[in-house]
Amino acid sequence: MTEPRDQSDALQGIEGVLLAHRDRILRFLEMRGAGDSAEDLFQDLWMRLTERATGPVADPLSYAMRAANNLMLDRYRSARQRELRDKAWGESAAMHSPSSEAALISREQLALADAAIAATGERPARIFRRFRVDGVHQREIAREMGVSLSTVEADLRKVYAALAALRRQFDAG
């Protein structure tokens, strides 16, 4: 086996390993507790491994499996931190009710966020709500709507960009 001559050869190598061992990696993620989210995690893994500038990897499958395991650990830690934060926020919110001014500002910001989501178009708004509010996986949304997974991802990016721009407005004002 020859060493990759440049970054594109290395990238094709990682992509090739991910494609060739996709089912094995999905089973590994499922066994580690990903359940129905294994497909989404595989997409995250793909993005992480193909976006990085790496040199030659001695054992690409082992590298991919280690990265998948690290992704699961990150997910577990994030879920744990989210639980602790939600619990703390819930206790804090129960102790303090917002002022009428804060409630009014929040309602106005929510209306602006709804308008920003709607302005991205009917399909991106629907995809965003199915994914973020209903908790439906991206692959299922693509199947439901008869579009490709990349279309779902592109529409989500469009909505996220609109919400990020709105957030910058909130932070500046």
From TrEMBL:
InterPro entries found in the cross-reference section: RNA_pol_sigma-70-like, RNA_pol_sigma-70_dom, RNA_pol_sigma70_r2, RNA_pol_sigma70_r4_t2, RNA_pol_sigma_r2, RNA_pol_sigma_r3/r4-like, WH-like_DNA-bd_sf
This protein's name: RNA polymerase, sigma-24 subunit, ECF subfamily
GO biological process terms on file: DNA-templated transcription initiation
Organism domain of life: Bacteria
Family according to the record: Belongs to the sigma-70 factor family. ECF subfamily.
Boundaries of every RNA polymerase sigma factor 70 region 4 type domain copy: 122-162
Assigned keywords, A-Z: Sigma factor, Transcription, Transcription regulation
GO molecular function, one term: DNA binding
Matches recorded under SUPFAM superfamilies: Sigma2 domain of RNA polymerase sigma factors, Sigma3 and sigma4 domains of RNA polymerase sigma factors
Domain RNA polymerase sigma-70 region, chain residue ranges per copy: 21-80
